[in-house]
Structures are given as C-alpha cells and as structure tokens.
Write a structure and sequence with these properties.
There is one protein chain. By secondary structure, the protein is an alpha+beta fold. It has 2 domains: 141 residues, Gcn5-related N-acetyltransferase (GNAT) (Aminopeptidase); 149 residues, Hotdog Thioesterase (Thiol Ester Dehydrase, Chain A, Roll), CATH 3.10.129. It is built from 6 helices and 14 strands. The longest helix has 24 residues. It is elongated. It starts with a strand and ends with a strand.
C-alpha cells in the first residue's frame, strides 16, 4: 500500500532528490545537484512511497508571496505514471497551503502538462520561460478556499481580539490560518519581522509562540464554554521557555496541537485558578525552528 508523506530520513530525502533529478534534469544532461535550490529548507515536501520503500511521486510547496504559494518540482516515476499519484501530491500540497493561510497557488507548468493541471482547476495566465532552450513553461494559478474543517468564525474572533488589543500582533501581520478544535496554526510576515541577518527576529519568534499558545488556550476555553456557559476566565502567561533550533526565513508558522497540551478547565467552575501546560512549535518549512514550552494560568472571572 502506498503512503503519502514527507521524507523522514536522510536516505529518503536523498532518494527524493534522486527522483527529481532523474525525471526533471537528467534527460537534458543536467548534473546531479542541479535539481536543488536555496529554498529546500523553507519548503514543504511531499512524496508517495510504496511498501518496498520506493519513492513513486514527489512535489514541493514554497511561499511565493504573502498569501500565495508556489508548487514546483512535480515528478512521477516512469513506472508509476497514470496511477493518479500526481493528483494525490497536488491535493496534499493544496491542503497544506490552505492550512498555512495561502489563498492561491501558482506554478509553472511544462507545455505537455497543461492539460493535467487544467483538470485540477488551474488556469493558464501567460507564457513563463523556456528551460534548457527547449522546454516551454506556462504560468498557471488556482484560487484556494478554507479547509472544510477550519472553524473560521472562532479563528476570526480570536484574530480580531489580538489585532484590537495587542498592536504588535497587527504590526507583525500575525494571523490564524487554521483551527479545527484540536490544532491551531498561525503565521506572520517573516520578511517584515527580519533581523540584520535577514532571518526572523528572535523577539518576533517568541511573540508568535506566546500568542499561538495563548490562542490555543483561549479557543479551548471557548470550546468548553459551549457545554458550560459559566466557564470563563482571564488567561495569563505564568512561565515560559524557548529554544531556538534554526534560523527562519520564508515560510514561518506556529502550531499547537491538543496532544501537546494538558490541564483541566473544570476547576474554574469552583472559582479556582487552573494551569494549562503546552508546547508550541515554530516551523520554517517542515523543520522545527523553535520550541516554546509554557504554562498559562486561567483566572476565574468574578
């Protein structure tokens, strides 16, 4: 049975690039290594791999603009073509793009692949370029909507609270891109939040992590209030520690998932403070660039 996921080991990543080179570069006499560029660590990578560990199809998503993603390096093994694997890759990359707050996808399609992308809802806009003096490419674009499980109203309410009460969050262009009741994903404008090294400023990373954690607690509290209307409180950050693992450039986003949070809200009903412990991760592409471990205290409202 085939599996669709990102490369998980150095060996898988090497074979992922090998397939990219074999399909997209080798036939035109390009050297091994020419299939990679400076955006690899900032991007989202997906592959279809079979039970024997053979990589059958690949594709990459990167940030093109503030709300626009770009799909590149789509390739399917010669032995696996015609099985719908390319569509699976596109569907997964579009899903991820939607969760990251991207409103449209752009790509440069080889002339022979235009029909494939048109069937998936992409529209041709203009001629892009000619690769290796013979492969014509055309720019294609597709609009994206919110993912079906995204709780838009709850997310918008929280985002409005941030922008109305915390001016820094609005200046950072901090936004909620996805919330499904368990997972919260946020992002901000990494280019605006740059330091002198042209990577994301450590203070902005800390702010993104703090508000992502605070936001998850707020939304979890609102979710509990649906069952118990008297459940209410003020959320404050009590303790926090952050570890910076790698610089962030390009695609930056924060994430908290329910499995990384613990604590009970029910003591609020007894007029007691509660403590919620959680871990927020800040990503650059698919790599964890910072780990934020925090405790938030919810104070019952009198």
């Amino acid at each position: 049975m085939n599996t669709l996921r990102s490369p998980e080991t150095k060996d898988e990543l090497a074979r992922y690039y090998q397939l990219r080179w074999q399909i997209l570069r080798k036939p035109w006499g390009q050297q091994l290594g020419s299939e990679q560029d400076e955006y690899e660590k900032q991007a989202i990578h997906r592959m279809v791999i079979d039970e024997q560990g053979d990589i059958l199809a690949i594709g990459r998503l990167e940030k093109a603009d503030k709300h626009q993603g770009r799909i590149r390096f789509m390739a399917v093994s010669e032995t696996a073509q015609g099985q719908g694997l390319g569509k699976q890759i596109i569907d997964e990359l579009e899903l991820k793009a939607s969760q990251l707050g991207m409103k449209e996808i752009t790509l440069n399609a080889r002339e022979h692949a235009i029909g494939f992308y048109q069937k998936l809802g992409y529209q041709t806009t203009e001629f892009s370029h000619t690769l290796f003096d013979e492969i014509k490419h055309y720019t294609m674009i597709k609009k994206l909507g919110h993912h079906s499980s995204h709780q838009k109203e709850a997310a918008q309410e929280l985002q409005d609270i941030w922008h109305d009460t915390i001016p820094l969050s609005k200046a950072m262009a901090l936004q909620i891109s996805y919330y499904d009741g368990e997972k919260l994903m946020t992002h901000c404008d990494a280019e605006f939040n740059q330091n002198l090294h042209h990577t994301m400023f450590a203070g902005s990373i800390y702010t993104l992590a703090t508000l992502t954690g605070w936001g998850w607690v707020y939304l979890a509290l609102q979710k509990k209030r649906q069952d118990e209307e008297t459940l209410n409180g003020d959320i404050v950050l009590a303790e926090a520690n952050i570890k910076y693992h790698a610089p962030i450039k390009g695609l930056a986003y924060g994430q908290v998932v329910q499995d990384n949070a613990s604590g009970e809200f029910d003591n609020l009903l007894k007029g007691k403070n509660i403590r919620i412990n959680l871990v927020a991760h800040i990503y650059c592409g698919e790599n964890i660039a910072a780990t934020f471990t925090a405790s938030y205290v919810v104070l019952p409202k009198k």
